[in-house]
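thought: fold this chain, then report.
action: predict
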Amino acid sequence: MTGLVERFTLSRVLASLSERQVLPVAALLADAFVDNAAYSFLFPDAARRRELLADFFARNLGTHLPHRCTYVWTPDRERVLATVTVRPPGGIPISLATMIRRGLLPFAFKNGANAVRRLFYLIEHTDRIDGEATGGRLHFHLHMMAVHPDHQGEGIGGALLRAALAAKVAANAARHPISLSTEREQNLSFYRRLGFEIKGEYELGGVAGGPLFRTWTMLREGSA
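observation:
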């Protein structure tokens, strides 16, 4: 096979997100998730959703940046074509003060009280169903992944995720399972090919002005 995937070497895949890449990667994620059901619940206003998602993802990426768990693929200096964030077991440590100052207060100011209610609802229930999928065990979590719309269907997403998971194996972290959730039924077969199994199907949402939506949890067991 020729083309972009042929250039998709392990060393390129595992480039960690840099500070200068936060905004373009946030824009890539906003494009990828603008029609996602969970984010449609969080930001019901379709006209402003992409703008609000770009801000939301930029803050989220900034929180993850020091922990070097977000990877990007940049075949040249100007373009970020794919990204994945794999949270480590136990999550990332964030102080309450940082969470309030850098996350909650700007989010509340920009989006209003009902959006804060929806955000807390999402955090509570996504944590709950993730715990059900993993049985409460320490685990990695596939947090965010996106491929540029012009290059979807070319095998880049699978190559990116395989390389990120291979890095965990190389770091002797393969004993931990890896969880994810998806709101797109068509994604289930993609993740199955990468070794994930469906653990649950849920209907969430329907509060604080946000619509109901369906989500699936999936798990890939670690190696002994």
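thought: worth noting. Residues 5-220 form a domain with the Aminopeptidase fold (CATH 3.40.630.30).
final: tokens above.
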